[in-house]
Specification:
heterodimer, A: 426 residues, alpha+beta, 4-stranded antiparallel β-sheet, 3-stranded mixed β-sheet, 12 helices, 12% strand, B: 415 residues, Butyryl-Coa Dehydrogenase, subunit A, domain 1, Butyryl-CoA Dehydrogenase, subunit A, domain 2, Butyryl-CoA Dehydrogenase, subunit A, domain 3, 4-stranded mixed β-sheet, 13 helices
Amino acid sequence: MKNFDEFSRPMEYTSPMDSHLRSAIRNWAQKEVMPFRRNFDEDWMDHKLIEPAFDKLMGNKGLGLQKALFPSEVGGWGLGQSDYLFRSSLIIAEEIGRADTGMAVASMCAFWPLITITVSPYLNMDLCRQIAPMFVNADNAVFAANAMTEPQGGSDVENMELIKGKTLKTTARLEGEEWVINGHKLWPTNSGGVSSLFGVPCTTNPGSDDPDAFAFIFVPVKTPGVTEGNPYEKAGMAADKNSDIWFDQVRVPKSYRAHGPGKDKDAFYQLISMGQAASCGFLTGAMMNMYERLYTFVSTRTYNNRPLKENDAIAGIIGRIAGDIDICRILAHEAAMIGDRRNMPYGDPIISLKTVGRIRNIKDFVSDRAIDILGQAMDVLGSYGADREWDIEKHWRDIKIIQLWMGGKQLCQMEAARWFFNCETL
Amino acid sequence: MNKNLDAIFLYPLTWVDDEARMFADTAREWANKEIISDRLNYQKNYQKLFIEKRRILSVDIGFQRLVLPEDNGGFGWNTPSSAPGIMNVFSEIGRADAATGYVTALKYAIFATIAMEHNMNKKLCDILAPQYLADEIKTLSLILPGAGRAGEETPLFKGRAIRARIEEKEDAFILDGEALRPMGCGADADLFCIACADSDNRPCLAFVPAETKGVIKGDPIRQTGLDACKNADITLKKVKIPKENCIKRDGAIMELYAWLNLLLGGVSIGAAMNFHEILDEWAQSRVIKGAEPMKENPLCAFVLAEVADDIATARLINFSLSHIMAQPDKWGKVGGKGIYTFAQMIGARVQRLSLNALNRGMELMGSAGYAKEWHVEKHWRDIKTIQSHLAGLASNAPVMMDVSNFFYNSPEVQK
């Protein structure tokens, strides 16, 4: 194998934008991230190193990635309306994730709430026209956050199939031409002072599991009544800031609701599969970079005075590690393809139980393998495994949260069981 | 452990005598008072408080002198029979802070090679104990055989490269070695214990004061966990040490590995047990699906069971190792091939079980398990760092070769 690009992926799934996107993001990563990433952990609060790299990825002074989802009529790339949405997202996730999964998460979560209004069949052109300018006209990075997790609810909001939003405590009340929002959210990626816009799942009828009561409303961060806490300090993912957010009598125009009763829930539910498929890309990106670093180590360090990779026992270990990366990459592409088949005659809607269950299942599997083999790779390095200079430990710390988020492993297992075994009461 | 933990994570009570239990109680009091009850402050001022709290444990309470014979001002735990008791003490320390456990374990293991009754090196003990186990806190670092560099032909210790060389010159020994990787504390060490090879390629241990001319410390290494154990690569350029600072006794390096696996197993088990306490509180107070406590959900209960299973198993097998080590008349000496093999085999398993407990339990805590506020992620990073350092090289493949050779007499696998 010549290099990490040769890990398997179904070439039939490749999008026409694949090589262009890959090469543009890889060049950016090589120049703007790789030389600095070992110092990102200490930059978790200030983002003095991280922010300039984001500007060159997201803003018009660089690649302009933050325009990607919006329709071309409002200055975007039209990715939200493309049949290659999931596959292109996977490429972006993988290439940024190879350099830094925290940056991958933060940049892609800027898209996340926007999916509710930019992806067919949930396109809301009026709202796109109102919101797009803050993203498409900006030279620097502009972030959005999906403010969904609540203190008492944990992953309930991601468990739409069962909970249907009935445990949401954040309320939206219509007063004239404005929504009045009150509530408390935790942990959104791109909170803690990073975002310009929040997408906020809330309820118009607390305690109800009526789909009509679920509302997804956009809130510009500078709206009076919005308060953010300081970022949390975490084990890794320094480029991804998270904090508390409080909404106190926050008023936004009525038109800032994504769609309306019933449709908001479905539009929001798309986020689950999109988030899980992108998560697979973050993971395979990190795994491939681990392979690059591991390759160097096992070629230059010895056991019995021979390179590690030339010992049968050690070859057995590293062979399995590389084999797992190969399989996980194929699965990640399959997860993306499941999403992109949504408009095909043989495909299923993104919000179907089948799509959600299958993509969650793949993400669960890939997360488990990633955690396992990153940990093993650290042990292959032994006394050097915990060393930041070898980069593998950073990926190991960073990717653990990917397994934990969006309801974590257990919700993945439940969604898979619901689909594969027709469970009715879970 | 607190009473509740000892009552649920069972262990063979008769293997730990009253005196050892008293030491464990003292360590527990230190852990609760100095660290666990003040976790947020401890975390915030970690670098500063680490030294202070470690000094209280090591110097004021005097735990660093456990291994010394009474003649040297120690507690006289310098026989292998102390193994179960000392392991238990290290779990108490690890429950509070694995880094404190780690530096204390390195110190204990290093001194065990010269202070144990069966291998007592009185002269060296008399020289080193007053300097490094007295009223001021001193840090010891250990350089073991490990990864070699492609293109280098080095002497080997069971396949692992010995990259430091020692040569006899008149009344002294001279050491050389380039960019040697310590197990920890290289940046802060006052004394290095270095596995090196003599002119006959025979492994030996050299005790090198850090201020000796020719000892060059590299830049501090940032690592996954054990943040306070600042490591750095060490280069030795014609470093001269007195002859008595080198021990060439057979089995000394194997003895080091045995103690390290036992004690660091204890540290990781202690960290995992503290994680159990945190997780227990979380699972009781967290409501899921809008109605039920997390612990009452069967899927979550399954994960909780796996966490408890891993910790309980790790504790029991590590106690078994300590029991075997404590009876050299039955199972051979600590530096012998049998104990060395079992220590490595069980040590690796204990680290895997402890880490798996954290990995699985964190799944139930979601983002809270990942945030520094809950102290879980620190235990997770610390245990992983211990595991990688103990593996030493190639994900335990050399350990597996040792094990295979012991059970199936296959010496060729180590060549």
